[in-house]
Write a structure and sequence with these properties.
This is Branched-chain amino acid ABC transporter, ATP-binding protein. By secondary structure, the protein is α+β, with helices and mostly antiparallel strands. It contains 6 helices and 4 strands.
Length: 192
């Protein structure tokens, strides 16, 4: 396995891994359904080894290795053209690597899964352009973001269960917006 020297500051997790390695769903905040049954007994939730991606001879990723532990939060930073978007495309299944493996937990080979299968396994993506309903409250925006039936008829009759309300409050607490939950989302700063 080839390794690329990494500055020591990039090796430190932003958030210390959860000490309860092996219970990935709650450790990474996915809730009870996403990632269900995910095997993380060795403490790694995402493993990328020797990932290479080329576009017409240009190596966007060259033998990349990345290991993310259960409950760990990483920031991927770099200049334009460094491969950040390509990395996310590999993880979410939009781009297939020409070489290497990507594992979610220890058993889900992301390089063999479709984008839909990867999303159903619990891997999501947030693009840089924020999309919020500015006139709705922060709580209402999170309510709409929940994984529910979005058909017109179901939406008209839908009521939040106690478990769904608890999950929204849990997210609000995590992102430190509990005190702003009733404010219109359009009044929040971009960083909030």
């Amino acid at each position: 396995m080839k390794t690329t020297p990494t500055p020591s500051f990039m090796l430190e997790p932003v958030l210390a891994p959860n000490s309860d390695a092996g219970t990935s769903r709650d450790a990474v905040g996915l809730g009870k359904s996403a990632g269900k049954g995910l095997n993380t007994r060795h403490g790694t939730i995402l493993t990328l080894e020797d990932i290479s991606v080329s576009f017409d001879g240009f190596k966007a990723l060259n033998d990349l290795n990345l290991y993310i532990g259960v409950g760990e939060l990483r920031c991927i930073i770099g200049p334009n053209g460094a491969g950040k978007t390509t990395l996310m495309d590999v993880i979410t299944g939009k781009t297939r690597p020409s070489h290497g493996k990507a594992w979610f937990g220890e058993t889900l080979d992301l390089t063999q899964m479709s984008e839909v299968q990867i999303a159903q396994a619990g891997i999501g993506r947030k693009f840089q352009k924020p999309t919020v309903f500015e006139a709705l409250s922060v709580f209402e925006n999170l309510e709409l973001a929940q994984k529910t039936d979005k058909s017109v008829w179901a939406s008209l009759r839908a009521r939040l269960s106690g478990e769904q309300q608890d999950r929204i409050r849990e997210v609000l607490e995590t992102i430190r917006l509990t005190t702003s939950m009733h404010r219109p989302a359009g009044l929040l700063s971009h960083g909030q």
